[in-house]
Amino acid sequence: MSASAGFAPAAHSLRARLRTGEFLVGTFIKSPAHSVVEVLGGVGLDFVVLDAEHAPFDRASLDTCVLAAKSATLPVLVRLPSSDAMHALGALDSGADGVVVPHVLDADGARRAVASCRYQAGARGFSNSPRAAAFGQVPLSEHVRQSDLNCNVICQIEDALAVEAIAEIAAVDEVDCLFIGRADLAVSYGCDRLDAPEVETAVERIIQAGRRRGKALGMFVADLGQVRAYRRRGVSLFIVGSDQAALRAYFRTLADGFAAADVQDDKFNQEMYP
Question: Can you name the residues that pair with 238 across neighbouring β-strands?
Answer without folding.
Answer: 25, 219
